[in-house]
Specification:
Shape: globular
Order of helices and strands: HHHHHHH
Helix content: 55-70%
Largest sheet: none
Number of helices: 7
Distance between the termini: 26 Å
């Protein structure tokens, strides 16, 4: 699950076709805070972008009886939204493309647009207009 979370953050960060040094550093920090086993940022950057529906499917598969990962889709959505905002704001702004991908991941995990807006308004009130 940690790998999928990290790939989701990378997918969001590169939605505007670039990841600057500040974003890369913030990616490394956020991933290190959430994932217990070390992940290579270089390998994550080389991986194919993760589609939001694939993340949701993987989460459902791990939540099957006797294989519960203990992570609710809503919890993962909150982590992805808040961490993605921190990552992309490292460059100073949130692009429309990045906002769109954040919404797609949150929606795939069962969050409504209102819930995403609420999460964003807590992170930075002016971000709400980007969504």
């Amino acid at each position: 699950m940690g790998q999928l979370y990290a790939r989701a953050l990378v997918t969001i960060a590169r939605a505007d076709d670039q990841i600057g040094l500040e974003e890369e550093q913030q990616l490394q920090q956020r991933i290190a805070l959430r994932v217990t086993s070390p992940l290579s940022i270089d390998e994550l950057l080389l991986a194919e972008p993760l589609e939001p529906h694939r993340l949701a499917e993987s989460l459902r598969a791990t939540a099957a009886p006797f294989r519960n990962a203990g992570l609710h889709p809503g919890e993962l959505a909150i982590m992805i939204v808040t961490d993605a905002i921190a990552v992309v704001l490292a460059k100073g702004y949130l692009s429309e493309a990045e906002a769109g991908v954040i919404v797609r991941f949150a929606s795939a995990l069962g969050c409504s647009l209102e819930q995403v807006r609420s999460l964003c308004s807590r992170a930075a009130p002016w971000l709400e207009t980007a969504l």
